[in-house]
């Protein structure tokens, strides 16, 4: 099953994911593991949305590029940052990444985890081809099988991939494909990389949605240095 383009076009058009401030974990992980201290440092973001993290990347004075699956979101990002229009492209990044490497870092937050297993594997192969030797991939907020909604929706392709979340879903209503992982599955997906850091996060809601568990993974992996 391909990228849930129609679902995400609708979600971005509705304004549900129109977030305009950078995610704090993106800032933390990029500074901690990528260390973009030189002006020729090259960063690729997968799933930039409406440009949520671009204000942060602008502060780095790095060579930034982004790919986004939703044309609606990409147009919003370009409108918000017209001086970076040529740095943002619309594509299904599980099948093609239109920017040539090598990149020093590839960053994404909860974008790859909205794809089936086979598409995630293919994207990670593309990422590996575009990262410099020793380059870092930072993947944040990948959904864990301990997430409350892992048992919702319907199974698609394999036990890690689900779909069919309707309006009753707190986190994934009408979001198309959702992918969940356990540690073994992540290590398998990143078999061509060297995992540098792996963290599991759990937060339990008290009010509202009492007892709801938001469980995610953060992963940092590097391409081998030949």
- The CATH homologous superfamily is called Vaccinia Virus protein VP39
DSSP helix count? 6
- Gross morphology is globular
Strand fraction band?
25-35%
- H and E order: HHEHEHEEHEEEEHEE
Low-confidence stretches: none
CATH T-level topology: Rossmann fold
The chain-level mean pLDDT equals 94
Number of strands: 10
Largest sheet: 10 strands, mixed
Q: What count of domains describes the coordinates?
A: 1
Q: Nearest-angstrom radius of gyration?
A: 17 Å
CATH hierarchy, class: Alpha Beta
**Estimated structural class:** alpha/beta
**What is the percent of helical residues?**
25-40%
CATH architectural label: 3-Layer(aba) Sandwich
CA distance, first residue to last residue = 35 Å
Brief digest:
With 226 residues, this protein is of the alpha/beta class. The chain has helices at 5-13, 24-34, 54-60, 71-80, 117-130, 183-189; strands at residues 42-46, 63-68, 88-90, 103-109, 131-144, 154-156, 158-163, 178-181, 194-204, 213-222.
Give structural notes:
With 226 residues, the chain is of the alpha/beta class. It has a single domain, classed as Vaccinia Virus protein VP39 (Rossmann fold, 3-Layer(aba) Sandwich), CATH 3.40.50.150. 26% of the residues lie in helices and 31% in strands. It contains six helices and ten strands, in the order H-H-E-H-E-H-E-E-H-E-E-E-E-H-E-E. The protein has helices spanning 5-13, 24-34, 54-60, 71-80, 117-130, 183-189, and strands spanning 42-46, 63-68, 88-90, 103-109, 131-144, 154-156, 158-163, 178-181, 194-204, 213-222. Strands 1, 2, 3, 4, 5, 6, 7, 8, 9 and 10 form a ten-stranded mixed beta sheet that branches. Strand 1, helix 3 (54-60) and strand 2 form a beta-alpha-beta unit. The longest helix has 14 residues, at 117-130. The protein is globular and about 45 Å long. The model has no long low-confidence stretch (mean pLDDT 94).
